[in-house]
């Protein structure tokens, strides 16, 4: 807005805004350097089956450990990366980290599906699918171990192109989910034509089932619709037993949230997994054959 009002406008020199602009520039500069350093890493949050609570996979969540600022949350630096046109590069770095980890687990005898968040700028690239498929070969990773999380808005501008991309990834054996479902205004007839595996019910809906009967109705309807369309469902952001009980009763297939586990670095996740295996919570193995 300040920009629109003209370069010489006093608004630019208002202390608060100036600090923000300086901070953004600083973060952008540092992010450019961080992309190819080990300051960027992935944390992994378990997803569990609603029935039996066995592990169905993990979601990879990007972390930036800044030497002075500490952990910068993705909500803060991803918008900066987007604005600076760094998302394709950052996204490629995330894919490499995820595939490396996936392969390391396979080498340890663990087949753990990893879900990776993909940004609009990444997904819009016509080379996204072929590059990812090549990367899988390069790392020797089974495509069925990688799940790509897209959002509703990413298929809205050019549905046909997006659907073709989803189909190409599916044909190659990858899994696809629609993340943050239920907060955008979905075009449901388009959704029906999109060959995705999973719908992830947004945290705001999961949260609201504890106190809002309308949210309960939306969640039940979403799960039924997803199943009718052949998609499995995952509820994100589960924090309470009450929410988990509601979602299980509503037929939600999988759950993810602080109630089960927080996102963790790989070594911590491995300990978490080992502890569960010790108490015999692991059921028929790690792989989910749901979709
Ligand atoms: P998302 O994909 O919807 O990821 C779920 C977010 O909810 C994560 O936040 C996770 O830590 C948080 N979460 C999980 N369970 C709970 C819970 O029970 N309660 C609460 N309050 N929060 C919970 P995080 O890691 O800060 O990531 C935020 C968003 O940043 C992600 O939302 C995703 O949109 C984006 N993001 C993260 N990593 C990447 C990445 O590698 N690439 C891209 N393009 N985006 C990413
Ligand atoms: Mg996600
Ligand atoms: Mg999500
Ligand atoms: Mg979300």
Account of the 3D structure:
The protein is built from eleven helices and nine strands. It is α/β, with parallel strands linked by helices. An eight-stranded mixed β-barrel has the order 1-2-4-5-6-7-8-9, surrounded by five helices. Helix 3 runs parallel beside helix 5 and helix 5 packs parallel to helix 6. The N terminus and C terminus are likely disordered. The structure holds ligand C2E and magnesium ion (3 copies). The site of ligand C2E has 23 residues, from strand 2, helix 2, helix 3 and strand 6. It comes from Methylocystis iwaonis. This is EAL domain-containing protein. Keywords: Membrane, Transmembrane, Transmembrane helix.
**Portion in beta strands:** 15-25%
Give, in order, the helices and strands: HEEEHHEHHEHEHEHHEHEH
Distance between the termini: 45 Å
Low-confidence stretches: 1-13, 281-285, 287-291
- Based on CA atoms alone, the radius of gyration comes out at 20 Å
What hetero molecules are bound to the protein chains?
Answer: ligand C2E, magnesium ion
| Biggest β-sheet strands, sense, barrel | 8 strands, mixed, barrel
Question: Structural class of the secondary elements?
Answer: alpha/beta
Q: What shape does the CA trace take?
A: globular
What is the count of helical runs? 11
| Biggest sheet: strand arrangement | 1-2-4-5-6-7-8-9
- Write down the overall mean pLDDT: 89
DSSP helix fraction: 40-55%
Total number of beta strands: 9
Main features:
single chain, about 290 residues, alpha/beta, eight-stranded mixed barrel, 11 helices, globular, binds ligand C2E, binds magnesium ion
């Amino acid at each position: 807005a300040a920009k629109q009002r003209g370069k010489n406008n006093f608004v630019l020199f208002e202390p608060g805004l100036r600090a923000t602009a300086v901070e953004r520039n600083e973060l952008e500069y540092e992010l450019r350097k961080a992309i190819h350093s080990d300051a960027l890493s992935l944390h992994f949050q378990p997803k569990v089956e609603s029935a039996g609570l066995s592990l169905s996979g993990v979601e990879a969540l990007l972390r930036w450990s800044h030497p002075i600022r500490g952990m910068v949350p993705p909500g803060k630096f991803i918008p900066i990366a987007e604005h600076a046109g760094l998302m394709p590069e950052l996204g490629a770095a995330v894919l490499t980290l995820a595939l490396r980890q996936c392969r390391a687990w396979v080498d340890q005898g663990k087949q753990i599906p990893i879900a990776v968040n993909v940004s609009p700028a990444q997904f819009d690239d016509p080379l996204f699918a072929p590059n990812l498929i090549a990367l899988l070969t390069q790392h020797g990773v089974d495509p069925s171990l990688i799940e790509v999380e897209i959002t509703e808005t990413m298929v809205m501008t050019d549905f046909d192109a997006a659907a073709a991309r989803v189909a190409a990834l599916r044909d190659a054996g990858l899994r696809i989910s629609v993340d943050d479902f239920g907060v955008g205004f979905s075009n449901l007839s388009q959704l029906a034509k999109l060959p995705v595996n999973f719908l992830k019910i947004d945290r705001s809906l999961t949260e609201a089932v504890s106190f809002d009967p309308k949210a309960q109705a939306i969640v039940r309807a979403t799960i039924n619709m997803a199943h009718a369309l052949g998609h499995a469902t995952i509820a994100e952001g589960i924090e309470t037993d009450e929410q988990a009980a509601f979602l299980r009763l509503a037929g939600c297939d999988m759950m993810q949230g602080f109630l089960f586990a927080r996102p963790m670095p790989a070594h911590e996740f491995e300990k978490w997994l080992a502890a569960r295996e010790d108490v015999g919570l692991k059921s028929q193995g790690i792989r989910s054959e749901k979709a």
